[in-house]
Amino acid sequence: MIDIQLSDKPLNPQTCFESVVSDAAGGIVTFVGTVRNQTKGKTVLRLEFEAYAPMAIKEMQKIAEEAAQQWSVLNIAIYHRVGILEVGEIPVVIAVSCAHRRAAFEACQFAIDTLKETVPIWKKEFFEDGEVWVAAHP
Questions:
Q1: 38-52 pLDDT, tens per residue?
Q2: 17 domain residue, yes or no
Q3: Which of 125, 114, 135 is CA-nearest to residue 31?
Q4: Is residue 79 over pLDDT 50?
Q5: Given a cut of 60, is residue 137 above it in pLDDT?
Q6: Cα gap 80→35, rounded to integer Å
Q7: What CA–CA distance (Å, rounded) separates 3 from 43?
Q8: How many Cβ atoms are within 10 Å of 74's Cβ, its own excluded?
Q9: DSSP helix/strand/coil, 28
């Protein structure tokens, strides 16, 4: 089962986790990305995420399908938030269940790394002395 969400509402890691639970799973790995209070030595006030929603959802689906094939994923959920987020809030949650823990870890890492590289979601960081768009695809 694949569960993809792109939302302007706060994300709940427990909901994401619960969507991948399976009696066949020997391991469930959850990644929760949070807005940190600094980057490159500068104080972060907040972040803003924008997305081209149709393509972002399509790309997240593609990531989930590839992870499912490569690591025999039982269930995978990829949630991303858009809009303005304050320090401590959650912009991304990924949960993966597999028969074995190693596969769950590897699939989850693949999902977050690939999401950051390929999904059309852009991040603007706000600092005390200005703001900057962070490259979507380094």
A1: 998 999 999 999 999
A2: yes
A3: 114
A4: yes
A5: no
A6: 13
A7: 34
A8: 22
A9: strand
Q: State how far the Cα of 121 lies from the Cα of 124, in Å rounded to an integer.
A: 10
Q: What is the CATH number of the domain that holds 32?
A: 3.90.1170.40
Q: Answer yes or no: is 134 within a domain.
A: no
Flag whether pLDDT at 136 surpasses 70: no
Residue 26 to residue 33: CA distance in whole angstroms: 23
The C-alpha angle 38, 42, 47, rounded to 5 degrees, equals 55
Residues 6+ apart with CB under 8 A from 92: 11, 31, 32, 33, 78, 79, 80, 81, 112, 115
| pLDDT exceeds cutoff 90 at 138 | no
Q: Which domain holds residue 82?
A: 2-38+45-127
> Cα–Cα distance between 114 and 136 in angstroms, integer?
11
Give dist(CA 133, CA 124) in Å, integer. 4
DSSP strand E in 8-91: where?
A: 27-33, 38-39, 42-51, 75-81, 83-86
Q: How many domains does the chain have?
A: 1
Question: What pTM does this model have?
Answer: 0.94
- Answer yes or no: is 77 within a domain: yes
101 domain residue, yes or no: yes
